[in-house]
Amino acid sequence: MSDIYLVIGAAGGIGRTLVSAWAGQGKQVLAVSRTGARDESWPESVNVMACDSSDGDIAQVVAHIREKAMQVRSAVCTIGFLHGEQNGVKVSPEKQLEALNEAQLNAYFSINTIIPALWIKHLVSVMHPDHATLACLSARVGSISDNRLGGWYGYRASKAALNMLIKTASVEYKRRAKNTSLLCYHPGTVDTVLSEPFQGNVKPEKLFTPEFTVTRLINILETLDPQGSPYYRDWDDKNISW
């Protein structure tokens, strides 16, 4: 059996950087994205696969991992959606109740909640039995107890639902993949396409590069103890209240 490091959403700013960082450490990396395209900065040792994030496609990726006699030492789902167009629907964070609509809510939950949940479902069978980590990019605004400003209904709710799925899955992982630590990770405001329209009110020192938040994430993953799983932490390795 060989160890692999899995990056889901490898075409995004954080995902692409995470692939480079792990590959630079000599890890065997499997980079998964919708197109399966290879970034020109990645070494040839990085394996790439296309996956449309449907249940069947995810199952095929995990079947490939199993057929190649590989075990996942660490997996990170970097997929997330805040604004833009999804299936012909223009999406932006809601500022008031009147802005809520079914199509936009469906877009938020389908990407921010359902896709990571399907990966969590399938990966349980291929996590390394000795010690492994599985992280999903969450957000501080997904904290129910920390919500004092309101707004951003769909994004907040979809991230809160993701947190609950991870917290619930951790109970079953303790039986089926007991040495796997599950993490909801808040990367901070990162200079990527996702945060670009909202960077105006961010102090320069609080706008992070993908390299910064990826380095912090890797450091946190290396310290997690399965007995304390699940974790909900930010880039500064501080706990966030659920």
Automatic annotation (TrEMBL):
<dbReference type="InterPro" id="IPR002347">
    <property type="entry name" value="SDR_fam"/>
</dbReference>
<dbReference type="Pfam" id="PF00106">
    <property type="entry name" value="adh_short"/>
</dbReference>
<dbReference type="InterPro" id="IPR052184">
    <property type="entry name" value="SDR_enzymes"/>
</dbReference>
<dbReference type="InterPro" id="IPR036291">
    <property type="entry name" value="NAD(P)-bd_dom_sf"/>
</dbReference>
<protein>
    <submittedName>
        <fullName>SDR family NAD(P)-dependent oxidoreductase</fullName>
    </submittedName>
</protein>
